Amino acid sequence: MNNSTSLKPTLLYEQVAERIADLIHRGTLRSGDRIPSVRQLRSDLGVSMSTVLEAYRLLESEGLVEARPQSGYYVRSNALTLPPEPSISSPELVVMDVGIGTLLLEVLATARRPGVVPLGISETSPTLLPTHRLNQVLSKVARHADINTNSYDFPPGNEFLRRRIAKRSLNWGGSLNADDIVTTWGCMESINLCLRAVAKPGDTIAVESPVSYAFLQSFESLGMKVLEIPTHPRDGISLEALEAAIQTHDIKAVLIIPTFSNPLGSCMPDENKRQLVEMLTQFQIPLIEDDALGELYFGEHRPKPAKAFDTEGFVMLCSSFSKDLAPGYRVGWTAPGRFRTQVEYMKHLSTIANCTLPQVAIAEFLQSGSYDRHLRRLRKALAIQVQQMFHAIGEFFPEGTKVTRPTGGMILWVELPKSVDALKLYQQAIQHNISIVPGHLFSMTTQYRHCIRINCGYPWSSKIEQALAILGQLAKQQL
What is the pTM of this model? Predict the structure, then answer.
C-alpha cells in the first residue's frame, strides 16, 4: 500500500485501497479530508459494497484513514508520518545447514526475568485468557471423569476433542472428520511429527524468509537443511520464487505459516493459497501448514487455511490452543492428510500418548460456546494493541524505520535503518528491563541484523509506552 511495496495488489479490494492510498500519498487527499462514501465509490468503480468496505478496512488497518460515527471515513491527521511497510525479502536461494546457537536460549531466559517488559516472546497476556473459566471446566471434568480418563491416551488422541476440532473446520470451508485428526503436545510437536513423517536428516525444507526461530530449532534438532524463499510482508511467500526453487533443488517439504506468519504477520490471499496447494500437489511435495494464529483475525471473516484448498491430501495442517486459549495445557493437533498413518507412527515413537484431562477440558470449553465468545473479545483486544504499538513505533523510532501491518495475530516486524545492530539493541534493551527478539534469530542469512520482532500480546500501558520510547532512543543512538 506504499511506495516500498514491490508487488502489485492482486485482489480487487486491494486495488481499490491502492487508489485511495495513492491519492493520500500524492497529497490529493489531505489530513482531515473526507474520502468518497462507500456508496459513491461503489458506483464510481462498479464494484460491490463489500469490496469497498474491505478496501476501507485495509486502509484503516494501515493507519491511513479513520472511521467517524455517522460521518464516514477521513484521512488520518498523521497518515503520512506513519512508518512504511518493509519490502519483499530477498534471500539467496541457497540450501543451508541450521544452527542458531545459544542466543535463543539467552533471549528466552532474559524475557522471563521479573519486571521485564515483555516485547519479545510471542505470547498472549494471561489477563486476556479465560483462565478462571478453564479452571472451572477442568475441575468439573476431573470430578466427573470415568476410569478411562486416567488411562493412556494413545494416538490419534481423545475422540471428543477431535470431533470438536473437526466441527470447527466448517468455519473455514473444510470438511474434516475426527479420523482425520491426531492430537499432540502443542503445535510444534505437530510440526515436528509432520517433518519426521515426510523427511529425514539431510533433506531440504523450504520456508518463508524471515522464518520462525522455532522452525529453525526443529531443523537443527532433526538434522534437516533449510532453503529460505523470498516473502512479502503482506501477501506471504513468493510463489514464483518457490516454484523456481522447486525446479532447481530437491525440496522434500514446504513449511510455512500462510495466515499471520511469524515474524512478518503476513496473510496470503485465498487465491495465492489455492495456487500454492495446486503447485505443491502437482510436484507431490507436502505442505506443512502452521495455522496456530488463524483464529486471531481482525476482520469480519476467518481467513481460510491452505488446507481448505487441499483435494489430494498433501497439506498437513497443524494448530493448537496455546496462542489463543491455554498455553499451559499444551494441547495441539494436526490433520496430516494422506500422511496420517506416518504421523501416528511418529507420535508412538516420540511421546507415545497425550494427557487426557486437558484435552477433555478444552473439548468441553469448545462445545459450550465459551471459546467463540472468548475469541471475539481477544480479537478486539489484539487489534487495538497492535495498532497502539504500530503508532508508538512510528512516533518514537528513528526516521527510515519500516513496520509491518498485520491483519491478525500479535506481532510486528520492525525493519530499522541498516546502521542499527539489532543484537546490540537487544543487549542494551535488557539493561533497561525490556525484552525484544533480534532479527538474527529469524534466518540463517545476515540480512535481518537490523530488524527486531515486537510482541503486541499485552494490553497497552504507560510501562509499554515508556519501553518503546527507550527502544527508539537506543536505536537513534546507533545512527
Answer: 0.85
